[in-house]
User: Fold this.
Amino acid sequence: MTEIGSDLLYAASLLRRGGLVAIPTETVYGLAGNALDADAVLKIYRVKDRPQFNPLIVHLANIDAMAKYAEVPAIAYRLAERFSPGPITYVLPKKTVVPDITTGGGETVALRIPAHAMALELLALLDFPLAAPSANPSGYISPVTAEHVQQGLGGKIAYILDGGQCSVGLESTVIAFATNKIIVLRAGGVTVEALREFAPVEVRTHAAPGAGSPGLLKSHYAPKTRLIVGNLRSLLEEYAAQKVAVLSLWELMRGENIVACEVLSPSSDLTEAARNLFAALRRLDAAGAELIVAERMPEHGFGLAINDRLDRAAA
Ligand code: TXA
Ligand code: MG
Assistant:
């Protein structure tokens, strides 16, 4: 089994030796390694069983570090002043110090400053940035507790830093820049509404193959149980003959064929719903149902990111 603890110095020493450590962030747990060390980064792809064309996010201790690894336009600094540290990732032209394997062979690098005290303390101890995808086997539900990481990657990594349950619960919003606009490649912890205050926003996450983030092209975030998204009442009627597990925004659903029901937020608060989403999906996946039926969220605020994860889980 992999050890779980809160020893930052030990974590730092493992990382300096080219090892991998799972780290807490405000969004989801990350599987971290030295972003400038091609061998460490290769281990990340192997442990996750992730295709090497799917680039990794490079995590930094502060905004000032961004210019070491990328060409940073003025708009990125304006956004960073407001949202970083926080659940937003900037895709920018990379500098040569970043190895090709870290960026999946591409000419851009994704940079993020996580808003989690432990992650920031760890980054401050190191003289290199941390490449960190979500700390789950490729394709499965992202981890929001140290125990989730243990369940998915236990035995494959030396250490899990336990920073408690992730406060946002959904991955960062991944953005790129075009002339006079922000392009959202993955909906996440910073809403499109908040970005619109800075520049016009184009959302590409649901677009045709070739658009969006490379990692978002196929099925992702998927439980093992088949999942269907839509209007809860219609779905429950349609699948009345099957043993179902229900993911509901606010209403507790009961019925003879309902083996489990998770309510994401009794007050329909989409921020709270996002925080509870991945843990709820894991419990539903373990409920022994033939099918998970999930309620489609309203398409505003965090609803956009939740629906994106549900659609991919259903793909
Ligand atoms: O909240 C998060 O972003 C978490 C925590 C650990 O920071 N990390 C995370 O990493 O979700 P990952 O690897 O699971 O998802 C990163 C996404 C992928 O869809 C990847 O394709 C995209 O970001 N991405 C990374 N670098 C990119 C680049 N240069 N261009 C376009 N998309 C990129
Ligand atoms: Mg991921």
Residues 207-211 have pLDDT under 50 and may be disordered.
